[in-house]
Amino acid sequence: MTDLSPAQLDDVSPEDVGPHDDEPHQSGLNNRLNWLRAGVLGANDGIVSTAGLVMGVAGATTDRTAILVAGVAGLVAGALSMGAGEYVSVSTQSDSEQALLDKERRELVEEPQEELEELAGLYVEKGLTPELALEVARQLTAHDALAAHAETELGIDPDDITNPWNAALASTVSFTLGALLPLLTITLFAAGVRVPVTVVAVGFALALTGWASARFGYGPAKAAVVRNVLGGLFAMGVTYLIGALLGAQV
Fold this sequence. Notes:
Layout (H helix, E strand, L loop, with lengths): L5 H5 L18 H32 L3 H47 L1 H14 L4 H25 L9 H25 L5 H24 L3 H29 L1
């Protein structure tokens, strides 16, 4: 951790105050991360699970129809499952956030002085002097009491509550798009090349989703790409081996 000297702090003027354009900030960040999480997880799951499924079937048989039926069934079932799961999960989170905000609203009406003291106390814990903390709490309460308490006490932005429908739609669509890649490559190419083509296509797709998740989530790209690609290749290798073993015995 790097501390600024008093002289450096004194060099900051009111005209310099403001957020950095290249850094994420609280406003709208919750829903953005929620969409990102649902979209990336959906795409990755669509790619990996469908690729694993069709590779397993391709290991057992060269019948294009059997592979296609299995892949389409996996795509539809997976997309619906992902969408429903995201809706239930995010709805629970949203309900919890709304309940906490409702409680805070009641307390602000019934116990305004105690709430002001509590808010000032939280700013004291963050490093402000009691006098400055109380002044900050008063000004923020006058501006938007609920927002001040929700952000400081609960870590919630009242204007940025997670939307379960957005998460469900993002997850369903991204899963479908991700699943289409291995499904198309494994069925459109000839039996002799369909497996290696699918492996290469899936590897590139997972590298792309890994890079995108790191880029939009402000994380390290290399680690995300390596995790995605190695995990997907491992899954495909295992399912293909199982399919080949079972196909040889049937």
